[in-house]
Amino acid sequence: MRPAHSKESNEMIEHTPQTYAVFPFVAALVLAALAAAAVIRSRITDRPLSPIETLRVLPIAILLLLVGVLCALGMCTIGGCWDMVRYALLLEVLGAASIAYMYWSRRAEDTGRTVRPLHIVRDIGALAVAAAASVWSLERAWNQNMVDVSIYATAISFALVFFVMLALYFIGQRRFALPIVVVVACTGMGLAQHFVLAFKNAAILPSDVLAIGTAAAVSGGYTYEISLDIVEALGAAGVAFFALSLIHPIKTNGRRELAIHTAANLCAGALIFVLISNVFSSVKVEQLLGFTYDHWMPINSYRTYGFIPGFIAVTQDLPIPEPENYTDESAEQAQAELVASYDASTGSSPDRVAAEQQFEQVKPAIIAVMNESFSDLSLYEGLKAAGYNGPQFYNSLTDTLERGTLVSSVYGGGTANTEFEFLTGNSISFVGYGKTPYQLYDLSSVDSLPKQLAELGYTSYAIHPQLAANWNRSTVYRQMGFEEFFAGEEFEDSETYHSGASDRSTYDKILELLRENDEPQFIFDVTIQNHGGYDPTNMPAEDIVHYSPAGVTDQATLDQLAVYLGCIEASDRDLNYFIDQLRQLDRPVILLFFGDHQPGITAQINDALYPNEDPTAHNWRIYETNYFIWANYDVAGNTQTNAVSELGANALAAQLLNLAGAPLTDYQKATLASRTGIVSMSGVGYRGVDGQVYALESDSPYRTLEDDLQAIQYLNFARKIN
Questions:
Q1: pLDDT tens digit sequence for 539-589
Q2: pLDDT value of residue 711
Q3: Extents of the domains making up the chain
Q4: How far apart are CA 299 and CA 306, in angstroms?
Q5: Fold type of domain 347-664
Q6: Secondary structure letter of residue 222 according to DSSP
Q7: Per-residue exposure over 43-66, b if at least 16 CB sit within 10 Å of its own CB, e if not
């Protein structure tokens, strides 16, 4: 007699994700059996069907196996087995229909019952269905607002996908293989956007596609789960694969006809690509749809207008445009006026003069630590009210030359842009949101901090305990003037924490460089340990710090917050160690410490704690991190009593050198002088000296100064790389 099973135990069995794998696996096996049966049947009837032809259903079989494997690994989080049954049944029917059509079409060709014009109609119809299914797959994977996307925006997405498929159809000699690439690209991009949205609450930008190697290198810290949205998106991809499987070329008679058809098809495909290119370069999708993409949060535009129009809008904004009414002479004049303002004030002050004289004598080692995702989240009042007071040692350091808020141009990711702003003094504001200069431009001719310090006798070193190729650093650092780059292999045996080599391991490398060489050095350290994702399994349980700010109810967000705050406490301990070591060092050192951006989870926290705010001021908060400038010696002209200021990352190097007494370039002087009007600038806006935050190109009291700064940056940067 069998033991009775309770209803609860049955539900547990039914809802175990691994058990769902049986449905797609069985469907894939049945599909393989049907394909084999079709081949055997065709041979019996003297109309042999090649096994290669049955590969038309291979993409559908792969979709079944893919989901089956993911379920078997426990990565499937759909609500019940019936969703998986429907998915498996849909693809099974599509695969069987594709096999049946192959068998029927072979019989029709052999009996001469095919009509060429009908083939073209069939192929165009199949491409249209495949394009529509591909767009649906792309949006379904991530966009909860897809039903609200306008018909015009959807039509643009469909038209682009269809015409790209059509071009590939002709180039591939009217076969189905090349258009499949578009289906894979759409579905893959939809899945990628799903995870980027889940992990960083951000949109995929053109520079992210160029940085795919970097994304892969740092993706290991996240937890990937396959939701019903993704399963349905893969189902739509199956519909697209089925539609394309109906396409197959008509046999040609003789070499001459084959050559003519081949040339005509290639010409047609090339012509379509030329037309697509011309439309892309001459028609702005923002003008076509009557919108301006959200520079603060591009994901909002993606949700409203669809992924493809949103992505195109950002892509069309990639070239750095020449400012309106720009001339070199007017830019030089604007810069000269700001330089004169600096020289007449800060530049000629007794404090600055004393610092200059001291710098010339001591030539301190200059250290810059850009700490991954470091930020004091006690700036969120609800979190502070819940008991969180920020990193203890960081906030207790009382002898800094200056400290305060650093306004970044990125959040949740995009580290390379904060690096770029610091090392070159240029703002992403006037490069363009969504662009990553490290990926797009040759910076060999661009002024940089290492090149500037080299003229003063400094040797520059870069440190990053990850792959040297990430964000193209191995190339960019050389272009910028770093003489040596200590990357991943250097830290293979170092202690790790959370996402990689610990902060302390990189500090030990800095101390090693300082102790083995007394010559002037500039050392730039990009840490990695605090990198997302913030899964509890990625760090010791005893280090996780739990806070529950009122208003934040999403448990996943709270769990990630707890891990992130634990990471910051670990960074704070390592910073304490580093400062202690520098205090004991028998050589003058000046240290800049700053966070590159906030973690991606703060967007949800910000929305929960500050609903119904003005969008500009609301979004500004998630771009705020922290910095301080500190020295282990008494810097002339500075009391080292924690002067507080707010800076944009583009002004960091200028302020560091200004406080140290080092010589400044005219560009740096102009940047510092402009802070009497625009206190801090980032890629999404700026804060005026009146304390208000303004969007770029808004009707603000500082619009003239903003235009001058844009022209000055174009003179010093864009002209050298455009």
A1: 899 999 999 999 999 999 999 999 999 999 999 999 999 999 999 999 999
A2: 98
A3: 7-267, 347-664
A4: 10
A5: Alkaline Phosphatase, subunit A (3.40.720)
A6: S
A7: eeeeeebeeebbebbbbbbbbbbe
pLDDT band at 216 (very low <50, low <70, confident <90, very high): low
pLDDT band at residue 49 under the 50/70/90 scheme:
low
In angstroms, rounded to a whole number, what is the distance separating the alpha carbons of residues 214 and 414? 11
Nearest to 92 by CA among 100, 104, 102, 80: 100
At which residue do the structure tokens 């049946």 appear? 100
CB-based contacts of 24: which residues, under 8 Å, 6+ apart? 64, 65, 67, 68, 71, 84, 87, 88, 91
Residue 397 has a CB neighbour count (10 Å cut-off) of: 16
- Is residue 116 very low, low, confident or very high in pLDDT (cuts 50, 70, 90)? low
Residue 24 pLDDT greater than 50, yes or no? yes
Query: Which pLDDT score is estimated for 601?
Result: 94
* pLDDT tens for each residue of 220-252: 666 778 888 999 999 999 999 999 999 877 666
Which H or E run contains 523?
A: strand 521-526
pLDDT in the model for residue 718: 95
Using DSSP, state whether 613 is helix, strand or coil: coil
Q: How far apart are CA 492 and CA 500, in angstroms?
A: 10
Count CA within 13 A, CB hemisphere, residue 187.
Answer: 25
Query: CB–CB of 710/679 below 8 Å?
Result: no
Which residues neighbour 607 within 8 Å (Cβ) at sequence distance 6 or greater?
none
CA pair distance 666, 331, nearest whole angstrom = 12
Structure tokens at 470: 């990430």
Position 573: which residue type? R
CA–CA separation, 630 and 364 (whole Å): 12
Overall pTM surpassing 0.70 (yes/no): yes
- Give the model's pLDDT for residue 258: 82
Three-point CA angle 478, 479, 481, nearest 5°: 65
Phi-psi region at 102: left, alpha or beta (left = phi > 0; alpha = psi -120 to 50):
alpha
3-state secondary structure 246-290: CCCCCCCCHHHHHHHHHHHHHHHHHHHHHHHHHHHHHCCHHHHHC
Nearest to 407 by CA among 684, 692, 689: 684
